[in-house]
Protein backbone atom coordinates (compact mmCIF):
# COMPACT_ATOMS: atom_id res chain seq x y z
CA UNK A 1 0.00 0.00 0.00
CA UNK A 2 1.52 3.30 -1.06
CA UNK A 3 2.42 5.66 1.75
CA UNK A 4 0.75 8.61 0.06
CA UNK A 5 -1.87 9.13 -2.61
CA UNK A 6 -3.55 11.97 -4.48
CA UNK A 7 -6.68 13.76 -3.30
CA UNK A 8 -8.54 17.00 -3.92
CA UNK A 9 -8.39 18.81 -0.60
CA UNK A 10 -10.36 21.92 0.34
CA UNK A 11 -8.84 24.26 2.89
CA UNK A 12 -9.27 27.71 4.33
CA UNK A 13 -6.14 29.84 4.36
CA UNK A 14 -5.28 33.48 4.94
CA UNK A 15 -5.82 33.93 1.21
CA UNK A 16 -9.32 32.47 1.32
CA UNK A 17 -10.89 29.18 0.24
CA UNK A 18 -8.58 26.91 -1.76
CA UNK A 19 -9.11 23.47 -3.32
CA UNK A 20 -6.20 21.67 -4.94
CA UNK A 21 -4.67 18.26 -5.54
CA UNK A 22 -2.39 17.19 -2.69
CA UNK A 23 -0.45 14.08 -1.68
CA UNK A 24 -1.89 12.78 1.60
CA UNK A 25 -1.72 9.66 3.77
CA UNK A 26 -4.30 7.39 5.40
CA UNK A 27 -3.77 9.14 8.71
CA UNK A 28 -5.25 12.28 7.15
CA UNK A 29 -8.55 10.53 6.35
CA UNK A 30 -11.54 10.19 8.65
CA UNK A 31 -11.78 7.15 10.89
CA UNK A 32 -13.34 3.93 9.64
CA UNK A 33 -13.07 0.16 9.69
CA UNK A 34 -12.80 -0.34 5.91
CA UNK A 35 -10.15 0.99 3.51
CA UNK A 36 -11.19 1.19 -0.15
CA UNK A 37 -9.06 1.56 -3.26
CA UNK A 38 -11.18 4.16 -5.01
CA UNK A 39 -11.70 3.66 -8.73
CA UNK A 40 -14.18 6.40 -9.65
CA UNK A 41 -16.12 9.33 -8.26
CA UNK A 42 -18.46 11.80 -9.95
CA UNK A 43 -19.19 15.50 -10.23
CA UNK A 44 -22.47 16.62 -8.68
CA UNK A 45 -23.91 20.06 -7.96
CA UNK A 46 -23.02 19.63 -4.30
CA UNK A 47 -19.43 18.81 -5.31
CA UNK A 48 -19.32 22.09 -7.21
CA UNK A 49 -20.35 23.91 -4.04
CA UNK A 50 -17.73 22.11 -1.95
CA UNK A 51 -14.81 22.49 -4.35
CA UNK A 52 -15.45 26.17 -5.07
CA UNK A 53 -16.51 27.12 -1.56
CA UNK A 54 -19.68 28.71 -2.98
CA UNK A 55 -21.72 26.71 -0.48
CA UNK A 56 -21.00 25.87 3.14
CA UNK A 57 -20.56 22.15 2.50
CA UNK A 58 -17.31 21.30 4.27
CA UNK A 59 -17.78 21.52 8.03
CA UNK A 60 -14.09 21.26 8.94
CA UNK A 61 -10.74 21.73 7.22
CA UNK A 62 -8.73 20.38 5.57
CA UNK A 63 -11.40 18.24 3.88
CA UNK A 64 -11.13 15.71 1.06
CA UNK A 65 -13.94 16.58 -1.37
CA UNK A 66 -16.21 14.22 -3.32
CA UNK A 67 -19.65 13.10 -2.10
CA UNK A 68 -19.49 9.59 -3.58
CA UNK A 69 -17.19 6.88 -4.91
CA UNK A 70 -16.95 3.31 -6.14
CA UNK A 71 -14.02 1.04 -5.50
CA UNK A 72 -12.59 -2.23 -4.21
CA UNK A 73 -12.12 -3.06 -0.56
CA UNK A 74 -8.39 -3.10 0.25
CA UNK A 75 -8.63 -4.01 3.95
CA UNK A 76 -11.47 -4.50 6.39
CA UNK A 77 -12.02 -4.92 10.10
CA UNK A 78 -15.70 -5.59 9.45
CA UNK A 79 -17.25 -9.03 9.06
CA UNK A 80 -19.55 -7.57 6.39
CA UNK A 81 -16.79 -6.81 3.88
CA UNK A 82 -13.63 -8.55 2.72
CA UNK A 83 -10.76 -7.50 0.46
CA UNK A 84 -11.83 -7.65 -3.16
CA UNK A 85 -15.47 -6.68 -2.56
CA UNK A 86 -16.70 -4.04 -4.99
CA UNK A 87 -18.60 -1.30 -3.20
CA UNK A 88 -20.27 2.07 -3.68
CA UNK A 89 -20.88 4.90 -1.24
CA UNK A 90 -23.26 7.85 -1.69
CA UNK A 91 -23.72 10.65 0.82
CA UNK A 92 -23.36 9.89 4.55
CA UNK A 93 -21.56 13.19 5.02
CA UNK A 94 -18.72 12.62 2.57
CA UNK A 95 -17.08 15.97 1.84
CA UNK A 96 -19.00 17.49 4.78
CA UNK A 97 -17.89 15.84 8.00
CA UNK A 98 -16.14 12.78 6.55
CA UNK A 99 -13.30 12.70 4.01
CA UNK A 100 -14.70 12.08 0.55
CA UNK A 101 -14.24 10.31 -2.76
CA UNK A 102 -11.91 12.62 -4.69
CA UNK A 103 -8.95 10.52 -3.56
CA UNK A 104 -7.21 7.34 -4.60
CA UNK A 105 -8.08 5.80 -1.22
CA UNK A 106 -10.93 6.17 1.25
CA UNK A 107 -11.40 5.02 4.83
CA UNK A 108 -15.03 4.72 5.91
CA UNK A 109 -17.35 2.97 8.32
CA UNK A 110 -18.66 -0.34 7.01
CA UNK A 111 -22.25 0.74 7.62
CA UNK A 112 -21.84 3.41 4.93
CA UNK A 113 -21.06 0.97 2.12
CA UNK A 114 -23.31 -0.88 -0.33
CA UNK A 115 -22.05 -3.92 -2.23
CA UNK A 116 -22.53 -3.44 -5.93
CA UNK A 117 -25.43 -5.47 -7.35
CA UNK A 118 -24.84 -7.90 -10.19
CA UNK A 119 -24.77 -6.16 -13.54
CA UNK A 120 -23.26 -2.91 -12.23
CA UNK A 121 -19.49 -2.49 -12.50
CA UNK A 122 -17.35 0.15 -10.80
CA UNK A 123 -17.50 2.62 -13.67
CA UNK A 124 -21.22 2.19 -14.27
CA UNK A 125 -21.79 2.71 -10.54
CA UNK A 126 -20.36 6.20 -10.82
CA UNK A 127 -22.05 6.87 -14.14
CA UNK A 128 -25.12 6.43 -11.94
CA UNK A 129 -23.51 8.10 -8.91
CA UNK A 130 -25.34 10.09 -6.28
CA UNK A 131 -27.31 11.84 -9.03
CA UNK A 132 -28.67 8.58 -10.45
CA UNK A 133 -29.28 7.07 -7.04
CA UNK A 134 -31.20 10.23 -6.05
CA UNK A 135 -33.20 10.05 -9.28
CA UNK A 136 -34.22 6.48 -8.47
CA UNK A 137 -35.27 7.50 -4.96
CA UNK A 138 -37.54 10.04 -6.66
CA UNK A 139 -39.01 7.43 -8.99
CA UNK A 140 -39.61 5.10 -6.06
CA UNK A 141 -41.43 7.92 -4.24
CA UNK A 142 -43.76 8.44 -7.21
CA UNK A 143 -44.46 4.71 -7.38
CA UNK A 144 -45.12 4.42 -3.66
CA UNK A 145 -47.58 7.28 -3.85
CA UNK A 146 -49.47 5.47 -6.61
CA UNK A 147 -48.35 7.45 -9.66
CA UNK A 148 -48.25 5.04 -12.61
CA UNK A 149 -47.55 5.33 -16.34
CA UNK A 150 -51.25 5.42 -17.19
CA UNK A 151 -51.97 8.39 -14.92
CA UNK A 152 -50.63 11.04 -17.28
CA UNK A 153 -47.57 13.15 -17.93
CA UNK A 154 -44.67 13.29 -15.51
CA UNK A 155 -42.56 16.45 -15.36
CA UNK A 156 -38.79 16.40 -14.77
CA UNK A 157 -37.22 19.79 -14.02
CA UNK A 158 -33.54 20.54 -14.54
CA UNK A 159 -33.79 17.62 -16.93
CA UNK A 160 -30.41 17.99 -18.65
CA UNK A 161 -28.51 17.73 -15.36
CA UNK A 162 -27.33 14.53 -13.72
CA UNK A 163 -30.43 13.75 -11.64
CA UNK A 164 -32.76 14.88 -14.39
CA UNK A 165 -31.08 12.86 -17.13
CA UNK A 166 -31.30 9.62 -15.15
CA UNK A 167 -34.88 10.35 -14.09
CA UNK A 168 -35.93 10.91 -17.71
CA UNK A 169 -34.27 7.65 -18.80
CA UNK A 170 -35.72 5.51 -16.01
CA UNK A 171 -39.23 6.95 -16.20
CA UNK A 172 -39.32 6.56 -19.99
CA UNK A 173 -38.20 2.93 -19.77
CA UNK A 174 -40.92 2.26 -17.19
CA UNK A 175 -43.51 3.57 -19.65
CA UNK A 176 -44.19 7.06 -18.32
CA UNK A 177 -44.82 10.00 -20.65
CA UNK A 178 -41.99 12.31 -19.65
CA UNK A 179 -41.95 16.07 -20.16
CA UNK A 180 -38.47 17.55 -19.68
CA UNK A 181 -37.99 21.11 -18.50
CA UNK A 182 -34.65 22.69 -19.43
CA UNK A 183 -33.17 26.10 -20.03
CA UNK A 184 -31.00 24.95 -22.91
CA UNK A 185 -32.66 24.37 -26.28
CA UNK A 186 -29.45 22.69 -27.43
CA UNK A 187 -30.24 19.77 -25.08
CA UNK A 188 -33.67 18.97 -26.57
CA UNK A 189 -32.38 16.29 -28.95
CA UNK A 190 -30.31 14.80 -26.14
CA UNK A 191 -33.31 14.64 -23.79
CA UNK A 192 -35.54 13.13 -26.46
CA UNK A 193 -32.86 10.49 -27.09
CA UNK A 194 -33.17 9.59 -23.40
CA UNK A 195 -36.92 9.12 -23.81
CA UNK A 196 -38.51 12.53 -23.20
CA UNK A 197 -41.77 12.88 -25.14
CA UNK A 198 -41.65 16.69 -24.98
CA UNK A 199 -39.28 19.44 -23.89
CA UNK A 200 -40.46 22.74 -22.39
CA UNK A 201 -38.59 25.93 -21.56
CA UNK A 202 -37.78 26.27 -17.88
CA UNK A 203 -38.91 29.91 -18.03
CA UNK A 204 -42.51 28.69 -18.14
CA UNK A 205 -42.00 27.49 -14.56
CA UNK A 206 -39.29 29.73 -13.13
CA UNK A 207 -41.32 32.90 -12.45
CA UNK A 208 -43.71 33.27 -9.53
CA UNK A 209 -47.14 32.06 -10.59
CA UNK A 210 -50.61 31.55 -9.17
CA UNK A 211 -50.71 29.12 -6.24
CA UNK A 212 -53.41 27.04 -7.92
CA UNK A 213 -53.19 26.47 -11.68
CA UNK A 214 -54.62 24.26 -14.42
CA UNK A 215 -53.68 20.65 -13.54
CA UNK A 216 -51.33 18.83 -15.90
CA UNK A 217 -48.81 16.62 -14.11
CA UNK A 218 -49.52 13.22 -12.60
CA UNK A 219 -46.11 13.39 -10.96
CA UNK A 220 -43.02 15.56 -10.83
CA UNK A 221 -39.32 15.03 -10.20
CA UNK A 222 -38.02 18.46 -9.20
CA UNK A 223 -34.33 19.29 -8.92
CA UNK A 224 -34.74 23.08 -8.94
CA UNK A 225 -36.83 24.26 -5.98
CA UNK A 226 -38.03 27.87 -5.54
CA UNK A 227 -40.67 29.13 -8.03
CA UNK A 228 -40.23 26.06 -10.24
CA UNK A 229 -41.29 23.77 -7.41
CA UNK A 230 -44.16 26.05 -6.43
CA UNK A 231 -45.51 26.09 -10.01
CA UNK A 232 -45.07 22.33 -10.33
CA UNK A 233 -47.15 21.83 -7.18
CA UNK A 234 -49.80 24.23 -8.47
CA UNK A 235 -50.05 22.27 -11.75
CA UNK A 236 -50.13 18.74 -10.28
CA UNK A 237 -53.30 16.74 -10.79
CA UNK A 238 -55.53 15.30 -8.09
CA UNK A 239 -53.70 12.69 -6.00
CA UNK A 240 -50.40 13.40 -7.71
CA UNK A 241 -46.96 13.41 -6.14
CA UNK A 242 -44.04 15.83 -6.43
CA UNK A 243 -40.64 14.39 -5.46
CA UNK A 244 -38.35 17.30 -4.53
CA UNK A 245 -34.63 16.62 -4.35
CA UNK A 246 -32.77 19.79 -5.35
CA UNK A 247 -32.33 23.53 -4.99
CA UNK A 248 -30.48 24.62 -8.12
CA UNK A 249 -32.96 27.51 -8.40
CA UNK A 250 -32.91 28.32 -4.70
CA UNK A 251 -34.01 26.85 -1.36
CA UNK A 252 -37.09 29.05 -0.97
CA UNK A 253 -40.64 27.84 -1.57
CA UNK A 254 -43.49 30.34 -1.80
CA UNK A 255 -46.80 28.52 -2.14
CA UNK A 256 -50.10 27.87 -0.38
CA UNK A 257 -51.88 24.85 1.05
CA UNK A 258 -54.34 24.79 -1.88
CA UNK A 259 -52.67 22.01 -3.92
CA UNK A 260 -52.56 19.84 -0.81
CA UNK A 261 -56.06 20.34 0.56
CA UNK A 262 -58.00 20.73 -2.71
CA UNK A 263 -56.18 18.20 -4.90
CA UNK A 264 -54.61 15.87 -2.34
CA UNK A 265 -51.14 16.50 -3.78
CA UNK A 266 -48.20 14.96 -1.95
CA UNK A 267 -44.86 16.76 -1.64
CA UNK A 268 -42.26 14.05 -1.03
CA UNK A 269 -38.87 15.25 0.17
CA UNK A 270 -35.99 13.14 -1.16
CA UNK A 271 -32.81 12.93 0.92
CA UNK A 272 -29.89 10.97 -0.48
CA UNK A 273 -27.37 11.77 2.26
CA UNK A 274 -28.89 10.00 5.27
CA UNK A 275 -31.29 7.64 3.47
CA UNK A 276 -31.59 4.34 5.37
CA UNK A 277 -29.70 1.35 4.05
CA UNK A 278 -32.91 -0.43 3.01
CA UNK A 279 -33.78 2.47 0.69
CA UNK A 280 -30.25 2.57 -0.70
CA UNK A 281 -30.23 -1.14 -1.42
CA UNK A 282 -33.65 -0.98 -3.09
CA UNK A 283 -32.59 1.99 -5.24
CA UNK A 284 -29.40 0.30 -6.45
CA UNK A 285 -31.21 -2.98 -7.15
CA UNK A 286 -33.79 -1.12 -9.26
CA UNK A 287 -31.12 0.89 -11.08
CA UNK A 288 -29.45 -2.36 -12.14
CA UNK A 289 -32.73 -3.34 -13.84
CA UNK A 290 -34.52 -0.13 -14.83
CA UNK A 291 -31.75 2.21 -16.01
CA UNK A 292 -30.94 1.55 -19.69
CA UNK A 293 -27.17 1.21 -19.78
CA UNK A 294 -26.97 2.38 -23.40
CA UNK A 295 -28.73 5.59 -22.38
CA UNK A 296 -26.44 5.88 -19.37
CA UNK A 297 -23.37 5.69 -21.59
CA UNK A 298 -24.81 8.35 -23.90
CA UNK A 299 -25.16 10.84 -21.05
CA UNK A 300 -21.72 10.20 -19.52
CA UNK A 301 -18.20 11.53 -19.98
CA UNK A 302 -15.07 10.52 -18.04
CA UNK A 303 -12.49 13.03 -16.83
CA UNK A 304 -9.26 12.85 -14.78
CA UNK A 305 -9.13 14.03 -11.17
CA UNK A 306 -7.57 17.41 -11.98
CA UNK A 307 -10.42 18.28 -14.38
CA UNK A 308 -12.78 18.53 -11.39
CA UNK A 309 -11.16 21.84 -10.40
CA UNK A 310 -12.12 23.26 -13.81
CA UNK A 311 -15.62 21.77 -14.02
CA UNK A 312 -16.74 22.60 -10.47
CA UNK A 313 -17.65 26.24 -11.22
CA UNK A 314 -19.22 25.20 -14.53
CA UNK A 315 -21.71 22.81 -12.95
CA UNK A 316 -22.90 25.61 -10.67
CA UNK A 317 -23.67 27.68 -13.79
CA UNK A 318 -25.67 24.85 -15.36
CA UNK A 319 -23.04 24.32 -18.04
CA UNK A 320 -22.45 20.59 -17.42
CA UNK A 321 -24.76 18.17 -19.25
CA UNK A 322 -25.56 14.67 -18.03
CA UNK A 323 -23.14 12.71 -15.89
CA UNK A 324 -19.42 13.23 -15.30
CA UNK A 325 -17.35 10.27 -14.07
CA UNK A 326 -14.11 11.17 -12.32
CA UNK A 327 -11.29 8.66 -12.79
CA UNK A 328 -9.39 9.42 -9.59
CA UNK A 329 -6.37 7.41 -10.76
CA UNK A 330 -5.97 9.31 -14.04
Q: Layout of helices and strands, plus pairs?
A:
Elements: E1 5-13, E2 16-24, E3 34-42, H1 45-52, E4 63-64, E5 68-76, E6 86-90, E7 105-108, E8 114-115, H2 122-144, E9 153-156, H3 162-173, E10 177-182, H4 188-194, E11 198-201, H5 203-206, E12 217-222, H6 226-234, E13 236-244, H7 258-262, E14 266-269, H8 277-290, H9 293-298, E15 300-304, H10 307-316, E16 323-327
Parallel strand pairs: 9-10, 9-12, 10-11, 12-13, 13-14, 15-16
Antiparallel strand pairs: 1-2, 1-4, 3-5, 3-7, 3-16, 5-6, 6-8
Overall description:
This protein is of the alpha/beta class and 330 residues long. It has two domains: 5-116 and 300-327, Quinone Oxidoreductase, Chain A, domain 1, CATH 3.90.180; 130-269, NAD(P)-binding Rossmann-like Domain (Rossmann fold), CATH 3.40.50.720. It contains ten helices and 16 strands. It has helices at residues 45-52, 122-144, 162-173, 188-194, 203-206, 226-234, 258-262, 277-290, 293-298, 307-316; strands spanning 5-13, 16-24, 34-42, 63-64, 68-76, 86-90, 105-108, 114-115, 153-156, 177-182, 198-201, 217-222, 236-244, 266-269, 300-304, 323-327. The strands form three sheets. Strands 3, 5, 6, 7, 8, 15 and 16 form a seven-stranded mixed β-sheet that branches. A six-stranded parallel β-sheet has the order 11-10-9-12-13-14, with helices on both faces. Strand 10 (177-182), helix 4 and strand 11 (198-201) form a beta-alpha-beta unit. Helix 1 crosses helix 10 and helix 2 (122-144) crosses helix 3. The chain is globular and about 60 Å long. It starts with a strand and ends with a strand. The model has no long low-confidence stretch (mean pLDDT 95).
Amino acid sequence: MADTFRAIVANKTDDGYVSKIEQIGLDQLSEGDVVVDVAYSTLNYKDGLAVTGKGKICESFPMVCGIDFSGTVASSDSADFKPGDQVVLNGYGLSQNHSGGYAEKARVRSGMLVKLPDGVDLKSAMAVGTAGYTAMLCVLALEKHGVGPKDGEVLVTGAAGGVGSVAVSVLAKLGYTVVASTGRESTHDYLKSLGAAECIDRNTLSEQGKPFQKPRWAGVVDTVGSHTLANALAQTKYGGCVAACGLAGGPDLSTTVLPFILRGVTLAGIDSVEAPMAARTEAWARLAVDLPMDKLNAMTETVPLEKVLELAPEILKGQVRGRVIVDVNA
